[in-house]
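Objective 1.3, modelling of assemblies. Example input:
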Amino acid sequence: MDFDALAQCLSSAPCLVTQSTSGLVIGLLMFLTASGLTLVFGVLGIANFAHGAFYMLGAYMAYTVYANTGSYLLAVAAAALFAAACGAVFERFVVRPLKGTDVMMQLVACFALVLIIDDAAKLIWGPAAVSLGVPASMRLPPVHFQGGVVPVFYLVLMGLSAAFGLAIWWLITRTRFGMTMRAVAELPSMASALGKNVNRYASAVLALGCGLAGVAGALAAPMRAILPGTGLSILLESFVVVVIGGMGSIPGALVAALLLGFTRSFGSIGFPLFTEGLMFLFMVAVLVLRPQGLFSRAGRTH
Amino acid sequence: MHCPSAYGPVSSTRRELFRTAAVSAALLSAPMLLRAQSGPIKIGMSAVTTGRFAYAGLGQVAAARLLFDQVNATGGIEGRKLELIVRDSRNLPEEAVKNVRSLISSDGCTLIMSAESSSAAAAINEGLRDTKAACFQLNSEASSLTADPKKFNPLVFRVARQGIHDAIAGGAIVSRMAKERGITRWATCSPDYAFGRETTQQFVDYFRHFGGKMDVVSQAWPKFGAPDFTDVVTRLLSSNPQAIYSLCFGGDLISLVEQGNLYGLFKDKLAVLPLYSDYGVVDTVKQAPPNVIVQNRYNRGYPDTPANRKWYDDYLKQSGGAKPHNWAWQTGAAAQFIVDGLRATKGDTDPAKVAAAIRGSSAQVPFGLAGRVTLRAEDNTLINYPMAYGTAIGAEPYVKDWVATDWKVILEEEAAWKKKQGYV
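Predicted structure (tokens):
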């Protein structure tokens, strides 16, 4: 523990700026990944243990499209659509047939899918790590603010993550689709009786959730190595965020992700050997004191 | 005609029958005996061929097959082909031990290649004590595997670089560089497990031992396989070092460099990233930082010989386009020692005879120092492999200005270290 270093950092503008922005970026990326997971759970009641695999697929698709077109925006869009399409297929052929079965069956099916996707990735892109690299247009010297260092790419990342987050919030709360989705989540039998195709909405939700994971993968791809098996550590992080924030709560996921992001960034200064442990300690504390999470939703009725 | 016997007279017909039966039995069993002698020589390999480290194991299989196929193409050894039997351990030590047992008891292998991590290697070595198989450890860099007399097994050979050799060479070369540039403030960033922690400390110790002045202002120990290094980068940046030392490798090193570049972490600093020279990192990072000092792992241009370049080209064909890595050349060297041993025993696969034939010997390999590497007799460990540091560049050959270490220095320091550890 180095609380002196932490205190010095908190009282120093350069350190405060650098660590705060890095915490923000870490948190926003975590939020984007976890928002898809919490959305799927909130609406469908499914803990998608294959979520990390869709993050990985998004990263790989972004790498392939960028390598062939040179356009990063196109790469992100392609990653989102590809991951979403895979999510829809996943819902139709894995989730739907196992609906109502024992949760262990669902868990096993998800892990089987993760292994299949990892092996497929190895066959297509090879077993070694690949790197998309920061697009040339964003390879600029970092911005200096109050003596702190803020990478230009991170500013872009923050903007895009926030934009996606707002778009999801708007979709869920301000559109007919979102309204119907919430109705399906609350009372699927009633929604079905009113003529809504519950299966189609389920597909759409899973596609959206997996698409968000794909976007997160694409946004992170320029600065992280992409290799088979990447999804597992992302999945773990996402579950921690969702448990702390509250399963099914998107605002909860945002708060939890930011909390963990700042913990990691300032923790690396003050308690570098215990940063990961602290994350899990938060999770355990929430599970013990408030098992439904910080921002719980009303229980699902089916 | 009747002959007397304890059972009464034996007719010549019955004697003829016995004679015929005996001759027939001999004739019938001869092909089986001949087949046993003429059948393939089975060499077992336990490797990681699935999962995150599949690229390592698959490359090692390719390196072994490259040489064995070449030997088979010229008729094998005493007319017998070499057959490599590979088992996947999924990077699990218990699986690796099971693989080795199965290769010995079910497949009849007496020569085993272990392409496994240090923890698996130690477990395999213990398991081998009940068997008579000879084993070639291809990956483990932990010196205690062969240096510690309590762990030593005369039928186990380490055909891999050693952490202590790397630390001595790195300390000697880098301390000289640092002195020339007036660098004293260092930050380290290495993976949080035995290899990262121990080898980093050894580097720091030898850096100081060779006269370098090092003030370690910050140390980061990221979890191996962590996707994000942002907090590590900002921590290193905040300590304002003049130089950074990192033993991160593979995907982790790519992430560290790409994220470090975003912050300008490597600007105006000396970066000592020994494992950055690996193909798969040095040719994958999109924005190569300046001033990166690397160690030779495997490079087509070092040694700069036609034989090494040919081996690289042949390996590419064997592996389907994947470039060789550090473990690949080590496997290639082990395969050569196996072939040399079997040639010396004229195809006799008795592990004790093969071991005796290669112990203390030098093998001709394209990536060796002056075309050879040696298995030191006192501890069955590899020496005289190329040990040098160079400067990374962004295009072929990816490293320039190699500075080699004198093996005399390495061996002297190693001996002193072993004495200090109580191994001698």
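DSSP finds 13 helices and 17 strands in chain B.
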